[in-house]
From TrEMBL:
Name assigned to this protein: Diketogulonate reductase-like aldo/keto reductase
Alphabetized InterPro entries for the sequence: AKR, AKR5G, Aldo/ket_reductase_CS, NAD(P)_OxRdtase_dom_sf, NADP_OxRdtase_dom
Organism from which the protein derives: Sutcliffiella tianshenii
CDD domains: AKR_AKR5G1-3
Keywords: NADP, Oxidoreductase
Record flagged with keyword Oxidoreductase: yes
Pfam families, per the entry: Aldo_ket_red
PANTHER family per the UniProt record, alphabetical: 2,5-DIKETO-D-GLUCONIC ACID REDUCTASE, NADP-DEPENDENT OXIDOREDUCTASE DOMAIN-CONTAINING PROTEIN
């Protein structure tokens, strides 16, 4: 199953999504994002994750064009920002994103945050984009179980993906189980806790044991938990190193050691309490 960067998980509508991709949060528009996306694609990555609010969709689109890989081999994700949520405004935001990306269709479109009073209407807009064939898969980001339940209660199309903050200090076991039970693929943002975990003693010991980096241990843990992961990097050696996780397996015993690090600790906002 997990035999390299082309390994995919099958979403509940049959679309294949790579287990591993590149995130471009906080990667600057222009040269920085163009070069990191191109380096990743050259290194074998096929999944790129951006968002309207990252303000780098233009650069991502440009890099995709210049990378010389057939469009159908790539899996491109973007997200509708909070200020654009609601039915009509989401449809307009989608068109704006597509123009910047320069794409004919999108692989995955996500509701970025569960904005109170709006995310259900926003979901209806995503269902329309999906029905119209403009997006191959639709999903959400930063949704707790109760937010997902609100969508499931009215959805004609269930979310295919829930992209959330996920790392050994925030292992979200209940949410992961709920997603698995409902056929929703979980995906990790900030898998390395924005670098905070790289000096963790337990992880450093495991890294030594497996002759891998701490980042590689964490990213492999994601995959073995059935979670898609999209670490961000702008450095070529790191982009390559992050992806070098398909030649080893963490034992059950060591997986438990990593699970035991959970503190329900976030580096990002709580989806029940954000004000943007």
């Amino acid at each position: 199953m997990l035999n390299g960067l082309t390994s995919t998980t099958t979403l509940h509508n049959g679309v294949e999504m790579p287990w591993f991709g590149l995130g471009v949060f906080k990667v600057e528009e222009g040269q920085e994002v163009e070069s990191s996306v191109k380096m990743a694609i050259q290194a074998g990555y096929r999944s790129i994750d951006t968002a309207a609010i990252y303000k780098n969709e233009d650069g991502v689109g440009k890099a995709i064009k210049e990378a010389g890989v057939p469009r159908e081999e790539l899996f491109i994700t973007t997200k509708v920002w909070n200020a654009d949520q609601g039915y009509e405004s989401t449809l307009a935001a989608f068109d704006a994103s597509m123009e910047k990306l320069g794409l004919e269709y999108l692989d995955l479109y996500l509701v970025h945050w569960p904005v109170k009073g709006k995310y259900v209407d926003t979901w209806k807009a995503l269902e329309k984009l999906y029905a119209d064939g403009k997006v191959r898969a639709i999903g959400v980001s930063n949704f707790h179980i109760h937010h997902l339940q609100d969508i499931l209660d009215v959805a004609e199309v269930k979310p295919m993906v829930n992209q959330v903050e996920y790392h050994p200090k925030l292992s979200q076991v209940e949410l992961l189980n709920f997603c698995k039970e409902n056929g929703i693929q979980m995906e990790a943002w900030s898998p390395l806790m924005q670098g905070e975990l790289l000096q963790n003693e337990v992880l450093m010991e495991l890294a030594e044991k497996y002759n891998k980096s701490v980042a590689q241990i964490i990213l492999r843990w994601d995959l073995q938990n059935g979670v898609v992961t999209i670490p961000k990097s702008v450095k070529e050696h790191r982009i390559k190193e992050n992806a070098d996780i398909f030649d080893f397996e963490i034992t059950d015993e060591d997986m438990q050691k990593i699970h035991a690090l959970n503190e329900n600790k976030r580096v990002g906002p709580d989806p029940d309490n954000f004000d943007f």
